[in-house]
Every structure is written in structure tokens, then in C-alpha cells.
Amino acid sequence: MPSISSGKLALFDLDNTLLEGDSDHAWGEFLISNSLVEEKAHREMNDYFYDQYKQGALDIHGYVAFTLEPVMQLDSAQRSQLLEKFMKQSVGPIILDKGRELVRSHVDAGDFCIIITATNEFISTPIAKLFDADLLIATELQSIGDKYNGKISGTPCYQGGKVSKLNAWINQQEICFNLSDAVFYSDSINDLPLLLEVATPVAVDPDQRLRDKAESEGWEILTLRS
After folding, report:
1. Last residue of a domain, which of 55, 75, 93?
2. I need a labelling partner for 209 at 20 to 30 A (CA). Which of 66, 144, 149, 158 fits?
């Protein structure tokens, strides 16, 4: 359980915000490059789901099942070994130094920092640790014994689900956190429901639809890329 500060909430999307790329999609490419899946079919499906996401119409249950299928027969120790290789090979190169600096600036200011991502907890947990945030809220997974079953546990942390999962966490805390004075950094139009709930929405290297919204609303537009 993270220690609770008395500061404000600082919320960060992960993929294409703190990372220069999408970790879910990178996972699919990692499996291909290590000959763990059939290249053509897996890339077609990986790209298909990623295009869905960019269009704001992701079948997240289907995507999670697809993402986990290659590791569903692995136990936690085997998954950890694979994740370690994934982190070195695929995640390290897309970590944004300015993303780390942004999170650090809020930590230093006494804010309570949360990475909140649609990416499932299997992939996002080791990545979030690199940013030293106080908490990760991600799409949670079901398991049977020591193995995943390919299904989501509870509400997916996607679109409006980010708002409901965050509010559920807030309601469990002894300290009164409030979205009315929170800041949220995101690149994606998928995060519009949460961006509309916070005091300070910030568009980070945004997709075109979010850029248009940010410009029309007068929101700050930030780049974390060189």
C-alpha cells in the first residue's frame, strides 16, 4: 500500500504519453521478434487492435485475450523472465526522459502521482515502476491458480472506465482527494472522459482529435519528445 501524501493528484497516461510508443503494441512485436508467435497472423491482429484503439473503438476484452494468449500456459516465474527480456529489448528504448522528469517534478511538489492506463497490469506494472509514481491503476486480469485465463477482472481501465476505477480508489482513501484540483496528462482522445473531469487537462503529444479538442478548449499542449 503506497503512503498517502497530502498533495494534489497528478495523473499520467502511459502509452504515447510517458512512453514514445505503445507498450501493448510493442509486446506483440516483441513476441514476433523472438519467434514466440507466427509473424504474419500475429502482426495483422496486433495492428488491427491498435488501429481500433486509435479510432476510439477498441474491443478491449478481445485485445486482452489476444495479448495474453501466448503466455497463458506460463506460470508467474516464466512470465517474469519473459517480461524482463521485454523490458530490456522493447521498453527501454521508448522510455521518455522528459516523462520521468515530469513525474519527478510532481513527486517533488508533494503531489500524489498515479499512472492510469488501459494497458493490462501484466505489461504495465514493471513499466510503471520505472517512473517512481505512487500508484498504478491499470486493466486488471483474472487468473486461475498461477496462470492468467485471458479475461479482464472488473472494469477495464479504458475511456470512461478510467474515471470509474479512479473514483473507486479515491472513495477508499482516508485522505480526501478531489478531481476538481487534479491534473491529467494524456495523448489520446480515448482519455477525454477523464480529461473533462480534472481541473487541469494537459494534452501530451496528442493525437489529432485530442489536439483539436485541446485547442478549442484552450488546454495546454505539451511535448515530451526531443
Report:
1. 93
2. 66
16 and 120 part of one domain: yes
Q: Label residue 5 by pLDDT band (50, 70, 90).
A: low
CA 107 from centroid of its chain's CA atoms: 19
Q: Count of CB atoms within 10 A of residue 110's CB?
A: 11
- Asked whether residue 175 carries a pLDDT value surpassing 90, the answer given is no
Q: Which residues are catalytic?
A: 13, 15
In terms of Cα–Cα distance, which of 105, 212, 201, 129 is closest to 162?
201
CA 209 to each of CA 141, 160, 171, 186: distance values in angstroms, whole numbers, following the listed order: 30, 17, 31, 12
Stretch 99-108: mean pLDDT = 97
